[in-house]
Amino acid sequence: MADFKGKNVIITGASRGIGFALAQAFAAEGANLSLCATREEALKEAAEKLAQYGVKIYTQVVNIAQAEACESFVQNTVKELGTLDILVNNAGITKDNLTVRMSEKDWSDVLDVNLTGTFLMAKAALKVMFKKRCGSIVNLTSVVGQMGNPGQANYVASKAGVIGLTKTLAKEFGGRNVRVNAVAPGFVQTAMTDALPEDVKAKALEAIALKRFATTQDIAKAVLFLAGDDASYITGHVLAVNGGLYM
Ligand SMILES: NC(=O)c1ccc[n+]([C@@H]2O[C@H](COP(=O)([O-])OP(=O)(O)OC[C@H]3O[C@@H](n4cnc5c(N)ncnc54)[C@H](O)[C@@H]3O)[C@@H](O)[C@H]2O)c1
Question: Ligand 1: which of 10, 11, 16 to mutate, judged by most atoms within 8 Å of the beta carbon?
């Protein structure tokens, strides 16, 4: 495992689900955390649970779809923690519907958070990483961004966009020693997948080679691998963590 002791990590959408598991995994390795989400109370609760790791924790309510919010979040992170080493663009939303029933608002809301938000956070963080000629960004995409999924045109387009963005940033900033990669989870055991009807879950499991959904820790292990020095010569890569659902 790469050494994360004293590294400063921004994780967006860290109040729950995969983002919270990421915060736990980085903190367990000694990294300082800068966490954002949309709800103050949920962030406060997350920070309280993470206090046991004894690392520095900065939290801020941020809507990553807004440029000024992303800029201020990165600037405050540098002020509070000293610098920024790693950015994990994890925050994401869904607003599913068949295309003919999907409103333009639901289309743009999802694109604004998942794709524009990832761009804006990367842009703000890269200004710091570019100057220090060192940094690592990991973006959360999804298996559906690679294979398509009915009822999720907005989400799939946003996640496919994240893959293109990841590869482009990798090419733009590789010369500055900044690596940019993506993790593409399949089904992950979270509140979202718990709510799926049993028959939908059973059908999904049939298609997964490993015959189980991912735990949030399965995803965290892949993110930490790409974020740290164990992946020192890997950039522009999309790491599938889907249990063999899509190869
Ligand atoms: N859960 C899955 O099965 C699965 C599968 C593939 C990919 N993913 C991706 O992994 C990431 C995390 O998924 P999850 O299931 O843990 O999500 P979740 O819904 O449990 O948590 C989302 C987090 O993002 C935050 N957030 C939402 N909108 C935001 C905004 N505008 N600004 C800042 N923060 C915002 C929320 O506050 C929350 O902390 C997402 O990008 C998702 O698309 C999840």
Answer: 16
